[in-house]
Amino acid sequence: MRNLLLFLIKNKDHFVFAVALFFSFALLFNRNNDEMSVIRGFSSDLVSFLSTPLVKVKSLAIVNEENQYLREKNLQLNLQLESILYAADENKNLRDLLNFKRETRLKIIPASIINKGIQTNVKSLTLDVGSLNNIMPNQAVLTPDGVIGKTVVVGKKSSIVQSISDNNFRLSVRIMPSGAVGILRWSRDNTCRVYEVQKNVDINIGDRVITSGFSNIYPEKLPVGIVSGVYDERGSYQKVVNVKIQNDFESIQNVFVVIENK
Fold first, then answer.
1. Which residue intervals of the chain are DSSP H helices?
2. Which domains does the chain have, with CATH numbers?
3. Phi and psi (nearest 5°) for 97?
4. Hey, CA dihedral for 84, 86, 92, 98, is it positive or negative?
5. Rounded to whole angstroms, what are the CA distances from 113 to 117, 155, 220, 256?
6. What own/partner pairs with CB < 8 Å and gap ≥ 24 does 88-96 have?
7. CA-to-CA distance for 82 and 78, rounded, in angstroms?
8. What is the dihedral of CA 215, 220, 224, 230, to 10 degrees?
9. DSSP annotation of 233
10. Which of 114, 188, 211, 215 has the smallest CB count inside 10 Å?
11. What is the pLDDT along the chain (262 residues), one digit of tens a residue?
């Protein structure tokens, strides 16, 4: 209290001026004559003129804040949508894998791809299963859509698969319904070519291509792909058949390893 009194005494001139100014304005604006009406109107215009930029700035700040909030919500909703779509696709893939495992007569082991292209001299996939899961070299690897390769190197808990997209990969196949047999090799863009097919065999686009069963690695009648083109080789009694692989190698996550070829 003492400090307050000292402050008032020290600044009494300013305090008296502020009180006098307050009462002056109070008395001035409480009069109802014409001169005061003009002054009040001018004061109102002046206050409005000075307040308008502040209101606009405040409005822009509110709009920017709302836009930022809406952008964040939009991002969150897009992420949630992508998560839902991914879960739906994954659920469908898992259902297909489960149905395939139920229907097949092969003895198979499910596996997940944990790496792609780790080898420098061969296009490969790395699986999360190995010898502890009865995996051995030269076992067929496939999905419900078809063959994707064979095991070449096996560790205790992982194994490396030579992919069908490797240029050194070969697979004996049969084209249905004609029954023509040939050797399948990778070409490009999820397309393979079947060589050594007799020219007089009737083959059409859309025919199914399956494993022939001539190999000790791949059981017969495993799906491989669909015929997408047929070409005659000049000066030869053979034709070349283009085969579209149904597997999308960029998105494959789960596969099966055939551990017993019945």
1. 2-10, 12-29, 34-103
2. 108-260 (2.40.10.350)
3. -65, -40
4. negative
5. 11, 15, 24, 10
6. 90/253, 93/253, 93/254, 94/254, 96/144
7. 6
8. 80
9. P
10. 188
11. 666 666 656 666 666 666 666 655 665 555 555 555 555 565 566 656 666 666 676 777 777 778 777 777 777 777 677 767 666 666 666 666 666 666 667 788 889 999 887 555 678 899 999 999 999 999 999 988 889 999 999 999 999 999 998 889 999 999 999 889 999 999 888 899 999 898 888 999 999 999 998 888 998 888 899 999 998 877 778 899 999 998 877 778 889 998 876 5
The DSSP code for 261 is -
Distance CA 175, CA 211 (A): 9
Which amino acid appears at position 52 of this protein? Answer: T
Q: Measured in Å, how far apart are the chain's first and last C-alpha atoms?
A: 102
Do residues 100 and 256 touch, judged by C-beta distance below 8 A?
yes
Per the CB < 8 A criterion, the answer to whether 221 and 211 are in contact is: yes
Cα separation, 237 vs 235, in Å, equals 7
The amino acid present at 255, given as its one-letter code, is V
Write the single-letter amino acid at 78.
Answer: N
d(CA 225, CA 211): 10
In order of 3, 23, 103, 116, the CA distances from 123 in angstroms are 87, 92, 30, 8
Say if residues 123 and 162 touch (Cβ distance below 8 Å): yes
pTM above 0.70, yes or no: no
Question: To 10 degrees, what angle do helices 12-29 and 34-103 make?
Answer: 100
Burial class of residue 20 in the structure, from the number of CB atoms within 10 Å of its CB (0-12 exposed, 13-18 middle, 19+ buried): exposed
CA distance 262 to 246: 24
